[in-house]
Specification:
Layout (H helix, E strand, L loop, with lengths): L1 H7 L10 H5 L23 H11 L11 E5 L5 H15 L4 E7 L9 H11 L11 H15 L2 E7 L1 H8 L2 H12 L4 E8 L10 H7 L2 E5 L4 H15 L7 H13 L4 H17 L7 H21 L3 H15 L8 E3 H15 L6 H13 L3 E7 L5 E7 L3 H14 L3
Parallel strand pairs: 1-4, 1-5, 2-3, 3-4
Antiparallel strand pairs: 6-8, 7-8
The protein binds a DNA duplex (33 and 33 nucleotides) through helix 16, strand 7 and strand 8.
Length: 411
DNA sequence: AGGTATTCACATGAAACTATTCTCTGAGTTAGG
DNA sequence: TAACTCAGAGAATAGTTTCATGTGAATACCTGT
């Protein structure tokens, strides 16, 4: 503890403003354990899934190509973590003949297009290709050559594969699976992870048959299982006695309600603890969890809004303005047409070029997907068919959103 | 009254376009031998 | 003659526009009673 030494040796003034933060005992023992991306050395309540996955992948150890796998399960059911865990175990036994690659297809600017996916795959093999300029099939060739040269069994994990397929189609999956028949000395196995249970149904038949050779379903955790998982993480992540049973129960219960999302439970407890620590409390209490729940919600919304492009923000402001001004007399809903009008006004005031209504329509449905607004299509008979838009935000969040938006626009 | 046709106000889809960033290639230019 | 420069052709990508087509049900319009 070099800081303590420094303090003792009086190298730091004893009125330094940071001193009081140092002296308060830390709640955390090892904070990274509480992050949802942490892979623990033991995964609870996934014994069955681990068993079947390892059975499928075991042939790799004997030099055969394992079947391709589809992994399903809603958010926070431990899909990613389990796969990572299994890959780690696999590598522990056999490093020379097996190569594992994990790629998250949703990562912006990393693997969200076919080109970038292959660029990423190449990068994993130590080949850097330019971001643009090359035809995609060149990357495809390069990847093929490298894999062939390596003489390994390559296990490629494509997390959130549905996002990529929705964006660019399933052609690349077909190409990847087809590679195997052309590869002589190496083989590729694909593990596709998705939280969209019906994803497989709208795949090309060829892809469906070759990729869906094996399927593993991850069921949501129930409250008891969540509690176990949390408990273990708490033991590792916090100093003893910091979190009591009631808090644990509460987090598990909230997460269980949200379709057994373990990530949610972890976020809750971590943020609750951060809040407690900042307040100078040495224990995490239930009210901290309440605040954490709100804060998580708020942060999520604000973050997504801030990261939206300007036009999208303008559209959101148009929605917020129209809803708050009660365009549709005192109801809290607005229609696409109202939004477009309000949007045009905002553009005029801010000197932004006005996009077509067609585009605005898309931007509105994007905001819907992000969960910032709720919209449903209604038919008003003779008076047309349109979207009925409602803000999906609590008043508190809404006010914050307004502040953020008004910072960016004159309105 | 009951049935059918219209009509509105957008939704939704597909394709094409724009602008930006970047590679590759080959022609032209330059400097050194 | 090798090395360098530079313009032009192509690609990838994101964000849009243009054009075309779809659509649910309140109303207008008929029809036969």
């Amino acid at each position: 503890m070099w800081i303590v030494e420094k303090i003792l040796s009086n190298k730091i003034m004893n009125n330094n403003i940071f001193l009081k933060h140092l002296s308060s005992p830390s709640i955390f023992k090892d904070k990274k354990v509480l992050s949802s991306s942490f892979v623990p050395d033991q995964i609870l309540h996934r014994e069955q899934e681990i068993e079947s996955l390892s059975k499928i992948l075991a042939p790799a150890l004997k030099g055969y190509q394992p079947n391709n796998i589809f992994v399903y399960g809603t958010v926070g059911t431990g899909k990613t973590i389990t796969i990572k865990f299994i890959l780690n175990q696999l590598k522990e036994i056999e490093k020379t003949k097996i190569k594992t690659i994990y790629i998250n297809c949703k990562m912006k600017k990393v693997a969200d297009t076919e080109y970038r996916l292959f660029a990423q795959l190449l990068k994993e093999h130590g080949v850097i290709v330019p971001d643009t300029g090359l035809p995609t099939d060149v990357l495809y060739r390069k990847f093929f050559d490298i894999v062939e040269k390596e003489e390994k069994i390559v296990i490629i994990v494509l997390d959130e594969i549905d996002a990529l397929v929705n964006k660019v189609g399933d052609e690349f999956l077909y190409n990847l699976t087809r590679m195997n028949s052309e590869l002589k000395r190496s083989q590729i196995t694909i593990i596709g992870i998705t939280n969209n249970l019906s994803f497989r149904d709208n795949l090309d038949l060829r892809v469906k048959s070759s990729l869906g050779e094996e399927e593993v379903l991850f069921k949501p955790y129930n409250a008891l299982q969540l509690k176990d998982i949390l408990k273990k993480r708490i033991e590792e992540g916090f100093n003893p006695g910091v979190v009591d049973e009631a808090v644990l129960n509460k987090c598990a219960a909230i997460a269980a309600q949200e379709h057994g999302d373990a990530r949610r439970a972890l976020d809750l407890i971590r943020v609750a603890a951060e809040i407690a620590e900042r307040n100078g409390d040495i224990r995490v209490r239930e009210e901290h969890v309440d605040i954490a729940e709100q804060k998580l919600d708020m942060d999520r919304v604000i973050e997504t809004i801030k990261s939206q492009p300007k036009q999208s923000q303008a559209v959101l402001l148009a929605i917020v303005n129209s809803v708050c001004n009660g365009v549709c007399n005192n109801t809290k809903t607005v229609l696409t047409g109202d939004v477009f009008e309000a949007y045009q006004k905002i553009c005029a005031k801010n000197n932004i070029n006005v996009l077509t209504q067609r585009r605005i329509s898309d931007l509105i449905s994007e905001l819907d997907m992000l969960g910032i607004i709720t919209s449903k299509i209604i038919s008003k008979g003779r008076y047309g068919r349109t979207r009925e838009i409602t803000l999906a935000l609590s008043n508190e969040v809404l006010n914050k959103v307004r502040l953020v938006l008004q910072e960016r626009f004159e309105s």
